[in-house]
Structure formats: C-alpha cells, structure tokens
C-alpha cells in the first residue's frame, strides 16, 4: 500500500486546546509533548471533523484534488 495522507496540524498556531483529540471519531489524534499529532494515521477516515472543530484553523485535511482546467 502507498503512504498515508494524514491531516496536517500547524503547531505554530495550535493552542493545544485538545478539541481535535476529543472530537476525532476515529481516535486517531493524540496529544503529545509538542502538541497534537496523528497517532494512528491508519485509523483516520478523512472525515475532516478535526479541521472543522479546530478553533485556530490549524488543521488541514489533505485530499487528492485534481483541478480541472
Ligand atoms: S483543535 Fe486545533 S488548536 Fe486545538 S489542539 Fe487541535 S490543532 Fe490545536
Ligand atoms: S480527519 Fe477525522 S478521522 Fe482523521 S484525524 Fe481528523 S477527525 Fe480524526
């Protein structure tokens, strides 16, 4: 299998509020010493809930987007 594409967390603007850890329905996010991280990328379903609930807008869920020209 190929590599996992996981949500990116921008720790520069993250306030460590913990909302993403609590709200991830897959339990894929954990809080580490440096901030939240995707501890179980294989469990992430790309539901984008973390991106939606993050008050800082620090999470970006990457999709494979092909722009039509
Ligand atoms: S919800 Fe956003 S600000 Fe809060 S811990 Fe997660 S990434 Fe950081
Ligand atoms: S996209 Fe969904 S499953 Fe993946 S880390 Fe965010 S909340 Fe969890």
Protein described:
This protein is α+β, with helices and mostly antiparallel strands and 69 residues long. The chain has a single domain (8-60), classed as Alpha-Beta Plaits (2-Layer Sandwich). It has helices at 19-23, 49-53; strands at residues 8-9, 29-32, 35-38, 59-60. The structure holds iron/sulfur cluster (SF4) (2 copies). One iron/sulfur cluster binds at residues 9, 14-20, 36, 54-56, 58-59.
List keywords for this structure.
single chain; 69 residues; alpha+beta; Alpha-Beta Plaits; two-stranded antiparallel ribbon; two-stranded antiparallel sheet; 2 helices; globular; binds iron/sulfur cluster
SSE map:
Layout: E1 8-9, H1 19-23, E2 29-32, E3 35-38, H2 49-53, E4 59-60
Antiparallel strand pairs: 1-4, 2-3
The structure holds iron/sulfur cluster (2 copies).
Residues 7, 24, 26, 28-29, 38, 44-50, 61 line the site of one iron/sulfur cluster.
Quickly give the structural class.
Answer: alpha+beta
User: What are the low-pLDDT stretches, counting only 5+ consecutive residues below 50?
Assistant: none
The bound ligands are: iron/sulfur cluster
Overall shape: it is: globular
Largest sheet: 2 strands, antiparallel
Briefly note the CATH topology name. Alpha-Beta Plaits
Task: Please identify, by name, the CATH architecture.
Answer: 2-Layer Sandwich
Summarize the structure.
With 69 residues, this protein is α+β, with helices and mostly antiparallel strands. It has helices at residues 19-23, 49-53; strands at residues 8-9, 29-32, 35-38, 59-60. The protein contains two helices and four strands.
């Amino acid at each position: 299998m190929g590599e996992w594409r996981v949500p990116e967390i921008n720790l520069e603007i993250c306030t460590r509020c913990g909302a993403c850890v609590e709200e991830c329905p897959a339990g894929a996010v954990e809080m580490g010493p440096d901030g939240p991280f995707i501890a179980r990328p294989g469990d992430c379903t790309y539901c984008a809930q973390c991106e939606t609930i993050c008050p800082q807008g620090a999470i970006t869920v990457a999709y494979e987007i092909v722009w039509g020209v």
